[in-house]
Design goal:
heterodimer, A: alpha+beta, Alpha-Beta Plaits, 2 domains, two-stranded antiparallel sheet, B: Aspartate Aminotransferase, domain 1, Aspartate Aminotransferase, domain 2, 7-stranded mixed β-sheet, 12 strands, 42% helix
Chain lengths: 160, 389
């Protein structure tokens, strides 16, 4: 049941509790209890809104930064990752297999802010060997949602 | 000039949906719940396989029966999902949609004057296809109180010494009814006793909710007297690809292939390649679509409960079939005046046979957002009618 709730609210967290209960064939109280439990257990980590900021302003840019670091004895990458993700301007931090170690994303910043962050904060960390910054030029699809698509129902209006 | 037309064809009633379609499609801002096909796009990996086959230049006829690769996958699928084993080289024929399989199956099996049992309400093509091959269609009127399932009593009372074939349309369009194993076992027993064949139209087999789909062909003694019809339209949202199949005894498939070979050649090649991919890697897509339909089904059942509109709970397809008898209107009048008053299109139950009179078919192959608006309109209309009364 948990998976059904999660699959649904992952796409639409604003759904009314009563409606969600009807759609999943559950009691409203049970859905509420499950949600609360999953929040407590840290399974549900937040309820966010997917925004196409490009339609609001052209001042915000998003950057992906590949970071190569020296892992530390006894801590691996965790400590260095923590030092990086604690900066409030960092949107996400992932440990990556392959050519570099950490992928750091910055969202909704100006060019100045990104460059200041990389040159003054990130590259000055002792353990950081190198950084490579990519700017996102256009978002086509985010969180499973195609951002520029508007599709009409092309089916015939009545069919047997 | 002489009359250029065939009397048999001229005498076939045009589809009851046609008239409604003409009127509904002229209106603007109509919300329609009248569509009998999925609202989902064909999953991308399936489309991609079709595109790839075109890029590679696979643009020729396939064998009459269809790609061996696809027939093999179909046999794997049927063994896995309904527990019936067929030989891909002898017992399967790929057709242009399930509809072609219905047509040529009847033509391969029926001699003029033989009787074909057609439970109604059901899909609109069985009766005309039976008439076209000279059969005498015998209608079995399914009943709301049985949740529109076929009972053994109904079957027995329709059988004569001319009865040749029973069409078994479950999960059902338009009612959403299904048949469960113990019910099918009763039907099977009668068919064996009375030596009747079955054409089991299982095009909605992947869309059942909380109940497993059972094929009558999986019941002992039935495989040899059943033509199982299925296809890709509903399960994989592939209506426009026009691809279905029939599986059954070699003797019958051989004759169906003959008609298919002369009338069609082979089913569309691109669609056949895409269908191989659907069967190999499509289970997850089907599960996701099924879950969405199920949510919408529950939403509608709850909406009917709130507006006090009686409707048995259907466990299959993507239709609900609420009863509108309290308003003392024919289903056609109800559908037309609902369209007029609220710009909401539903299909009159009578379009699927006389026993659909007093009901409307509502399709839930629509997004929840659309269904919500539609249910507001329906509720508004129902309340208006009740106030008037």
């Amino acid at each position: 049941m948990r998976e059904k709730i999660l699959t649904f609210i992952e796409k639409n967290s604003r759904v009314d509790l009563g409606e969600l209960a009807i759609l999943l064939g559950m009691e409203q109280a049970d859905v509420a209890n499950e949600l609360e439990a999953m929040e407590k257990e840290g399974i549900i980590c937040g309820y966010h809104t997917l925004i196409d900021w490009d339609k609001v302003t052209d001042q915000r840019i998003n950057a992906l930064i590949e970071v190569r670091v020296t892992p530390q004895r006894g801590h691996g990458f965790d400590t260095i990752a923590e030092r990086i993700y604690k900066y409030p301007e960092v949107e996400a931090t992932y440990l990556i297999s392959g050519g570099y170690d950490l992928l750091v994303t910055l969202e909704g910043k100006t060019l100045k802010e990104v460059s200041a962050f990389v040159s003054e904060k990130l590259s000055t960390l002792d353990t950081v060997i190198s950084t490579s910054t990519h700017f996102i030029l256009k978002k086509y699809k985010d969180h499973g949602t195609i951002l520029h698509e508007k599709k009409d129902d092309e089916r015939m209006i009545v069919t047997p | 000039m002489r009359n250029p037309l065939s009397d048999t064809v001229v005498n076939i009633k045009p589809s009851g949906i046609r008239k409604f379609f003409d009127i509904a499609s002229e209106r603007k801002d109509v919300i329609s719940l009248g569509v009998g096909e999925p609202d989902f796009d064909t999953p991308w990996h399936i489309r991609d396989e079709g595109i790839w086959s075109l890029e590679k230049g696979r643009t020729f006829y396939t064998s009459n029966s269809g790609l061996m690769e696809l027939r093999t996958e179909i046999c794997n699928y049927l063994r896995r999902r309904v527990n019936v084993s067929y030989e891909p080289d002898k017992e399967v024929l790929i057709t242009v949609g399930g509809s072609e399989a219905i047509d040529i199956g009847l033509r391969a099996m029926i001699n003029p004057g033989e009787e074909v049992l057609i439970p109604q309400p059901s899909y609109v093509s069985y009766e005309p296809c039976a008439v076209l091959c000279g059969a005498k269609p015998v209608i079995i009127e399914l009943k709301n109180e049985n949740e529109f399932r076929l009972t053994k009593e109904e079957l027995l009372s329709a059988i004569t010494d001319k009865t040749k074939l029973l069409i078994l349309p479950f999960p059902n369009n338009p009612t959403g009814a299904i048949m469960e194993r113990h019910e099918l076992e009763e039907i099977a027993k009668i068919c064996i006793e009375k030596d009747i064949f079955v054409m089991s139209d299982e095009i909605y087999s992947e869309l059942t909710y909380g109940r497993e789909h059972v094929s009558i062909a999986s019941i002992e003694g039935m495989k040899e007297r059943t033509i199982l019809i299925n296809g890709f339209s509903k399960a994989y949202a592939m209506t426009g690809w026009r691809l279905g199949y029939a599986a059954g005894p070699e003797k019958i498939i051989d004759q169906m292939r003959k008609i298919h070979q002369f009338a069609i050649m082979c089913a569309p090649t691109t669609s056949q390649y895409a269908a191989v991919e659907a069967l190999r890697n499509g289970d997850n897509d089907v599960a996701q679509m099924r879950e969405s339909y199920d949510q919408r089904r529950r939403f509608l059942m709850n909406a009917f409960k709130e507006m006090n509109l009686p409707c048995f709970e259907p466990y299959g397809a993507f239709y609900v079939f609420p009863c509108i008898k309290e308003f003392n209107m024919s289903s056609e009048d109800f559908a037309f005046s609902l369209l007029d008053a609220e710009n909401l299109a539903v299909v009159p139950g009578s379009a699927f046979g006389d026993s659909g009179e007093g009901f409307i078919r509502i399709s839930y192959a629509y997004s929840l957002d659309k269904l919500k608006i539609a249910m507001e309109r329906l509720s508004e209309y129902v309340n208006k009618l009740r106030k008037k009364a």
